[in-house]
Structures are given as C-alpha cells and as structure tokens.
C-alpha cells in the first residue's frame, strides 16, 4: 500500500466515524438501514436481574436471551442491572453509560454479517471501594436473580482439591470486613444480610461460568464464606437461596480495532460493540427461589440433566480449545480459525476428541458426542470469527484442570487410551516455556504464569518437573503409563518440533 492509498483509507475511516450514528436511546428511531432495532419501549422496563462481570460474553449471551424475550412483549420486569467488582469495570461502566447501556451485537457468519441493538440492560452500578453501591442495589427487593460471569478462576477454589479455599487473602479480608468486602461473594452476602433483616427475602445466585457443576460450586463458595462470618446466617442462606446449575455456550471474541471498525461499517458509533458466532446454547436447572423470566420461550433448555450437556460442552468444546491453542501459540498462529486451517492441528483436535474424550461423554437429547465434534469443528473453522489463540489459551491452569484433567482421570481408571491427552499436556508445557519455535516470546498469559514458566523450563531437561505440580495434576502424575507417555512427547517437542511430533502421533 503506497502513501496515497494509506491517506485515502485513513480519510475514508474518518468519514465513516463522522457519519456514524452515536448509539443512544435518542437514536433508536433512526438507526441506519440494515441494523435491527427494538420492538419494546425501554422506559417501561423494570429491573429483576443484577449481573456481576459484565463482559462481552454476557452481552452476547444472557442479555441477548432477555432481549429476545422483551422483543416478544414478555417479562419486561426482568431487565438487567450491570455490575463489577474490579477497578477496570468502572471504565466499562462509563463507556456503557455514555450510550444508555445499549449494545450493538454483530453476528459473524460465513453466509453474511448482520447487526442488532440489544437494550435489555438498563443501568450499571458504580464500582466503588467496599462495594457499598453494589450491596445497596442488591438489597432492593426488585432484584430476584444475581448472576455472575467471573471466569473459571474467580471462585477461590484450591487448585488441587477444587474445594473452597478460605485461606486466600481476599476471602480473609471479606471475613474481617464483611460490610466492606473485596469479593463479589462478600458483596452478595452483605446484601443478603440486609434483605434478611428487612424481611425482603432471598434471591437466586446463578453462575454463568464454564465450571462443572457451577451451581454446586457457587453454593459451596457462598455458604462457606457465610459460615466463616456467621454460622446462623449461613444456615439461612442454605435454606432460602437457590443456586441453579447451568451451561452456557457462544463464541464471543474480544473487542478490538477490527470490531470497532466493523460496527462503523453499519453506520454506528459504539464504543463497546460485541461480535459473536451464529450459535448459542443455554441449559438451565429450573431452581429459582424468587421467580424467573420465561426463558424457555426464547430457546433456553430447562432440565435436571444439566451435567450431561455441560460435560459434552466442557470436554469437547472447552477441552478442544485447549487442544488447539497450545500448538497454535507455539507456531505463532493468531486465531482459532487459522489454527483449524492447519491440517495437523485440525487432525489433532479430531483424533484426540473422537478417540480419547468422546468415549467419556454421554449423549444428550438430539446430539451424540460425534455429531457435537462435527458441530464444534464447523464453529471453530468459521473464518469470520477472529477469536484469538491468546484469548483461548488464557488461564490454562484453570481451563486444563476443568476441561481435560477430569477426562484423563476417567480414562486412566477405565483403561482407555490417553496418548493424545498426554500429548496435549506436553504441548501446554512446551507453550508455557514462553518461546515459540521461531524464537519469539510468548507473553505471560496465566494468573500463575511465573510458576508455570519456571516448571516448563525445568521440564525441558526433566519432563517430570511439569507433572510434579501437585496442585494441578495430583494423582495423575503418579500414573506410570501417563507419565512415560508425557515424557516421550515433551522430549519430542523440544528435539523434533511440533510438526514432526504431531505427525508421529497422527500416524500412530
């Protein structure tokens, strides 16, 4: 591209910015052609849900389902109040407030890109030290569901036991200052104490994170923290609040310059647009102590078999993401779609999942594990979804332990193949050494990156130094067959490289 072309391109981008319609309530009646608007009056919405952790996924998933319900003229008293507990959440709140909490959702599909405005969120609680504003808002009787997306690593669980860890500093701080807590869970309990005293009653506490038995985990964390504060109050929480299990699914890339430019092409000026694939799934246990919206009318599945859906998704999709991410990062590939264009990585995904993971996954109504593998293959391969390898690889210490290590344990117990699963762990170890095969640096990408990188560096000479992380591998490291296979794969990755190691595995 020559200088003149660059100038013209820059001027065209500036023209689009000038002509773009600023996303606000006042613009809803004059949206650009091709942008789907609202069929409901936002001034008539009333709050019913407070959501903590209001990132892209929530706005493309839970908020979209509520929006669809509102579009049908249903349940307008279940609008969403956004909230956060980290300082960076306040930046997001200010951006959202400037556009009246509206979001542009851009669907990325190979057959065509489309945009719609979602208006199901009507407010966002200011983020303040001690979370006084958040506690006060959750204390109000109109809030009947408090939902959360705080990532798999945000539940203060011991990495080795997956049980609530009361020794973590944030938890200790909540116990010491229960009226000015640090964590979302401490804020929830402070609000519940207020509601108990006022006779307002409990609310449902709903996890929307990718954790096996996320409702069970949520119950354990909240009631265990309450027990440390006041055993009598803890009993009240156990007896009155509900904690439904759920499974959520939609691929939602992070927002960057590409996404900002994409929404401008639709004639909109949105500071925080969201892009997403043409697929969503929400499986819910019908366990809501203070009522719920009629989400079954917009495609949400209510069932007491959430675990079966959850296991299929966590093991095949989330586990599949980790299978792909490590070799892709080592080879310097940027997106998951690009990674699926690499024949060896795509073949690795399909072979490991079909041969070693799918046998440990149950059918669900309308879907077998093998059919789900094909579905996930198509979703991962969508060239319109620029889902970065870095985003998918983030927090592998939580994602591997949640999605892949349980399968390894079951496979060892059942005597089924583990060769590919051992290779995936070797690839993760190789990635965490922090360098690609071209010599470039892999930036820290895990809350415990320093420890992972230290052990990965030692494992270059002695692979057992990686498996020796008991808080991650526990008893898996003591299985002679798994340890030997892992050892062989990791040595091959360092001496022969990713391509040759994958070739040897795929031809075995």
Structure description:
Residues 305-494 form the Mannitol dehydrogenase C-terminal domain. Residues 48-297 form the Mannitol dehydrogenase N-terminal domain. InterPro entries: 6-PGluconate_DH-like_C_sf, 6PGD_dom2, Mannitol_DH, Mannitol_DH/Oxidoreductase, Mannitol_DH_C, Mannitol_DH_N, NAD(P)-bd_dom_sf. This protein has helices at 3-19, 56-60, 62-71, 87-98, 132-138, 169-176, 184-198, 214-229, 231-240, 257-265, 306-331, 336-341, 343-357, 369-380, 389-393, 396-403, 405-414, 419-432, 449-459, 464-467, 470-473, 480-495, 498-506; strands spanning 21-22, 35-36, 47-52, 79-83, 103-107, 114-118, 121-124, 145-148, 204-207, 246-249, 268-269, 274-276, 281-284, 301-302. The protein is an alpha/beta fold and 508 residues long. Strands 7-4-3-8-9 form a 5-stranded parallel β-sheet, sandwiched between helices. Strands 2-6-5-12 form a 4-stranded mixed β-sheet, sandwiched between helices. Helix 7 crosses helix 8 and helix 11 crosses helix 16. It is globular.
The CATH fourth-level homologous superfamily of the largest domain: NAD(P)-binding Rossmann-like Domain
The number of E-state strands comes to 14
Query: Approximately how much helix is present in the residues?
Result: 40-55%
Distance between the termini: 46 Å
Number of domains: 2
Indicate the multimeric state: single chain
Could you list the spans in which at least 5 consecutive residues all have pLDDT below 50? 1-8, 10-17
* Highest-level CATH class of the largest domain: Alpha Beta
The overall pLDDT average reads 94
- The portion of residues forming beta strands comes to 5-15%
**Rough shape?**
globular
The largest β sheet comes out as: 5 strands, parallel
What fold name goes in the CATH topology slot of the largest domain? Rossmann fold
Strand order of the largest sheet: 7-4-3-8-9
Q: What's the architecture of the largest domain, going by CATH?
A: 3-Layer(aba) Sandwich
Give the C-alpha Rg: 24 Å
Tally of contiguous helical segments: 23
Structural class: alpha/beta
Protein name: Mannitol 2-dehydrogenase
GO molecular function, one term: mannitol 2-dehydrogenase activity
Enzyme class: oxidoreductase
InterPro entries: 6-PGluconate_DH-like_C_sf, 6PGD_dom2, Mannitol_DH, Mannitol_DH/Oxidoreductase, Mannitol_DH_C, Mannitol_DH_N, NAD(P)-bd_dom_sf
